[in-house]
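User: Sequence for ArdC-like ssDNA-binding domain-containing protein below. Tokens please.
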Amino acid sequence: MKSGKSLPWQKPWIGYGRPRNYVTQKKYSGINLLLFPTPGEYITFKQIKTLQKSNPSIKLKKGSKSNMVVFWKFLDKNKNEDIKESELELPVPVNQKGKVQFLDTIRYFIYHV
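Assistant: Structure tokens for ArdC-like ssDNA-binding domain-containing protein:
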């Protein structure tokens, strides 16, 4: 141990860790960890277009496959707000403040860098 050599049970490589966004460096979490084929950095098509404005040589490789990402958050609406009856057909949870909670989801596609 004191000789400075690596221990035989330590991994000799550095892993990528969790998938993250190339531009924002935010790590993806939740269901998105199961949707990515490999760890590493990912970028959206819109982010590629923004980067191309400052550096026109940046291009998406022809035939690149996209991966789906799911963004979700809870939305609270007051009971007296205009809520469509179709939204209330299922039992909806009401929080302590008397607001109806909805789960809002957005899916978009990203590319591995």
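Residues 21 and 60 are 16 Å apart (CA to CA).
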